[in-house]
Design brief:
43% helix; extended; CBS-domain; Rossmann fold; 584 residues; DNA-binding; 24 helices; P-loop_NTPase; 5-stranded parallel beta sheet; Sigma 54-interacting transcriptional regulator; Beta-Lactamase; ATP-binding; binds adenosine-5'-triphosphate; 5-stranded antiparallel beta sheet; alpha/beta
Amino acid sequence: MGLVKEWMDVSLQMLTTKHKLKDAFRLLADGEWVELPLVEDGKMIRVVNIKDCLAAIEGGMDWDEPIGLIGSVNFLTINEGFSIKELNHCPLYVVCEETKVLKGVITQKELLSIYQTVVQQHEKSQETNEWYQLCFDTAYEGLAIVDETGIIKLFNETYSRYVGMSKEEAIGRPVEQVIENTRIPIVLTTGIPERNQIHRLQGQEMVVHRMPIWKNGQVVGAVGMLIYEGVSEIQQIMTKKGALEQQKGDSSHQSNKPIARKRMSFEEILGESPAISQTKKIARKAALSKAPVLISGESGVGKEQFARAIHDTGIMRNGRFVSVNCAAIPDNLLESELFGYTEGAFTGAQKGGKQGKFELAHKGTIFLDEIGDMPLSTQAKILRVIQEKEVERIGGMEPIPVDFRIIAATNKNLEQMVRKGEFRKDLYYRLHVLPLHIPPLRERKKDIPLLISGQLSILCETYGITQKTIDKDVMQLFFRYHWPGNIRELLNVLERLFALTSESHVKVSDLPKEFFQTEKIQAYMTNSSPLHERREARQLDQEEEEKTVIEKVLKEVRGNKSEAAKRLGITRATLYNKLSRYQL
Ligand SMILES: Nc1ncnc2c1ncn2[C@@H]1O[C@H](COP(=O)(O)OP(=O)(O)OP(=O)(O)O)[C@@H](O)[C@H]1O
């Protein structure tokens, strides 16, 4: 219901001892106020009603005389921090607890409108609840929601039909007493979703999702979702889809056939956090056009994955996706890679010449990864190819027309590079038509369980293991960790854990040291030092890394240990321990 200060009327009329009797009388005769507060230095001292004015006239007070101390002390005050629920008398004058200054009033009118609003809110929430309930029961999917102890809190009609137990009977029971072979208790322990799993129920194979509900770093419950009534239903869908694709394939006449590889869809880019959902929404729109896309984001966030999904689902999908890592190719070879060369163009040139990447991407997409590492001279040539839509092989005379979509990616701040003259402004604007920023994993930690679940399935398949689970404490450390290497790092950590732990359960003690560093040190490592320093530091042994950070911070604060400890997020005692350990 809220506090008094949220509801009180602050526009109240006040009287002072200097008000003339006729003015006080007029205000009260107006009828809006039954009584008015009389204040002195902002503090309430009395209340005055119309009877007090009449009594003053009868007592001989002149019409133009100041009212002075008429009225009574018969009033109630309350503090503005009181809860509305505690009110049972009106009017109430609201004063500030410390200064006693009059702030407002709660009249019968306010109280009535408060009650009306509360009733309306209640009715609205009841209506919303009814809608939720209706959707819940109308859904084709069976839905069961449990709390953190595995007790069923919500259960819908569909699930009830499948297990042969009424909703009323199921709610309040442990889930394993209601759903046979359920793994929801395991999901509550691991905190990792299990999607598209086959589940045998009442002698029939069903497809289910089991999803943990995470809140403030804790698993507070789980949702069990029965999505298909039988595995055969999926087979039907797949058969239909296969037939459709075949039809499409037959009707398209392509001159430039792509190399067969698995197509990437946006659904394969795992993540449901608002940050990644928004990015996927923009990318889906980008796929509908041929305009250049400039993808930015830290290393390992999934820039190439997005580029592939845009190509594979977009209008250029019938052509090739040609990927060029500009940082990995030596500068002197980059141009021949991109533009190709003719026979005899230089010593060592291949017989018959060679097609460049732009030619290969004709009717498809060229993905220029790490474009920030491209030399300025090559940038100028790229700009020409984009503008002219034709490419000239090295040593060649004839321009070759090319039609391609360009997607560039970088983990550098191109705008800053443009300002410093390290990247061509004209090329930047040519590429910056559809900018797409991929957020780092630390800004979408909500996606961690889903990514883990996806990777665990892949690893189980690769290593031929049926099941391997992760301790909830491990998950919590994963949530706390800063993930400087983003998704690539997460996938690598999982693979390492998978390969190195022989048991079926990954425990906290299996984790590498970096997961136990203080968050401040992690943050410092990721944000404050330049990328190349961070990369070098990561290759060093973890302790060496910590030593480097401490040294750096100490230098920055000119040896002030208290300040250094504060910046590192550790106590002074811990800092002293570390200093003696590292002999600093
Ligand atoms: N949302 C995601 N779901 C599943 N896997 C992902 C996701 N994003 C990235 N990956 C995987 O993480 C790894 C790194 O992704 P990718 O190479 O696309 O990142 P990048 O940003 O292009 O990295 P770099 O800057 O180093 O080139 C790949 O193995 C990729 O398949």
